[in-house]
Amino acid sequence: MLKFSRDYLIVVIPIIFMIIGAWLYLDSMHMKPMNMNVEMKDMNMDMDMSMDMDNQNTFTLLTMPMTSDWNFNDLIVMTLMWIVMMFAMMMPTTFNFLLIFNQMRSNMVTRHSPKTELAILATTYFLLWTLFSIAAVSLQYILHNANIVDMMGIIKNNNIAASLIIFAGIYQFTNLKNICLEKCRNPLSYIMGTKINGMGSIVKIGLSNGIFCIGCCWVLMLLLFVNGVMNLLWVLIITIAVLAEKIFPYGNIISKLFGVGLISWGCLLFYF
User: Fold this and answer.
1) pLDDT tens digit string along 122-149?
2) Cα–Cα dist 27/134, whole Å
3) Domain ranges in the chain?
4) Which pTM value belongs to this model?
């Protein structure tokens, strides 16, 4: 039976609550456009349409961009949404890494502040996914204003979507994917092979392992553009897929099965 130290729980339990809060925030954001569409259908003609236009110009962190071109406020909202979404999706996958690190360090005399070390590791992951989120929202901004994706973040052209899906499937079989997935699934050997001298070494471990995490999952994250960045069910499905290959037994086999499924799905899209 796993034994969780007090220091580990002090760090992880607040992260769990933040993850729950992140999913609730995403739910409120993803439901907003649907409610707006329903309201617009029920509204009458010019007066109500002008009210909608006024609402679109009001800055709020709970409303998705609903116009043909994003403005600065829209960019801020979408950047925040991507950051929260990446935190909600990816932070649960760090718990195993944090646990192994905590157990390995528990009997070392060089360990001065266990809670601080764990918090630093969690923070480095969050910072890396924040940078990834900025890159992702920049890509969505370009694709949206180029009319390649719609307001819900869905690729409009089936051939482009199919190509992305096939690329994601092929990536599951690449050496880079295998190396990154192995580091994510078995961080102990990497941690033991790194000399730890102070908090700088902790930051280095967190950043390097976080980069492997990005290398493992970045293509799967791009699949959000297939069924929609605003599709909360699709976000949940990808989250489960990432957790499955990183945490479940036989994750390497699961990863290859995902690859086969993605390639098959992409090929079907070319014909239907």
Assistant:
1) 999 999 999 999 999 999 989 988 889 9
2) 21
3) 6-58+79-271
4) 0.82
